[in-house]
Write a structure and sequence with these properties.
62 residues, mainly alpha, elongated
């Protein structure tokens, strides 16, 4: 169990020191962050619309 762990650790170190790999990881992270951020904004918009619809329903018709 020791040697497979050593080999995996060495592979991880090599990848983490690789500048191309670092850039790819950072790009992927930024894409994921932007996707999450836009998804949150969309949810906020939907909740706002639902809230305004509920307020209209709660007001008595005159």
């Amino acid at each position: 169990m020791f040697w497979p762990g050593v080999l995996i650790g060495m592979g991880i170190v090599i990848l983490l020191k690789n500048e191309t790999f670092q850039k790819a990881v950072m790009k992927t992270g930024m894409k994921a962050y932007r996707a999450a951020e836009s998804g949150i904004e969309e949810v906020k918009e939907r909740l706002s619309k639902i809230e305004s619809e509920l307020e209209k329903e709660e007001k008595p018709a005159k």
